[in-house]
Amino acid sequence: MKKLLFLVCLVLAGCSNPLPDDKLAYVGEWQSKEMYLLILEDGTVSYQRLQRGGKTSINGSLQEFIGNDFTVGISFLTTTFNVSQPPTLSNGKWTMIVDGVKLKKVEEEI
User: Fold this and answer.
1) What is the pLDDT of residue 98?
2) I need a labelling partner for 9 at 20 to 30 A (CA). Which of 16, 63, 68, 77 fits?
3) H-helix or E-strand containing 56?
């Protein structure tokens, strides 16, 4: 059983695609009151959304960008995130609109 779990983890870890240079602005922690989105440079994505009394969570690998939208998951189990406003810097603050929700980038602490 442990060998199978290890193999599954190894396969999943190898499925992510690093973000292309022209999409590095997506990297970081993004949030609103109802949504949290973490995108790492190596293509790892963590997502949570509260909606209609329920919670949706996705943790997976970024598979591809289609324009500004991006797909997360493995094989045939994928979710596409609709990005109507890609990461935009205005007055020193980053924002992005994903699936109709305006997200603000969390400032990094050093």
Assistant:
1) 98
2) 68
3) strand 54-66
- How many CB atoms lie under 10 A from the CB of residue 69? 15
CA-to-CA dists, residue 46 to 8, 37, 52, 71, angstroms: 18, 6, 20, 12
Q: How many CB atoms lie within 10 A of CB 22?
A: 8
Whether residue 32 is predicted with pLDDT greater than 80 in this model: the reply is yes
Within 13 Å of residue 74, how many CA atoms lie on the same side as its CB?
14
pTM summary value: 0.82
Angle at 41 between CA 45 and CA 77, to 5 degrees: 30
- Tens digits of per-residue pLDDT, 50-76? 988 899 999 999 999 999 999 999 878
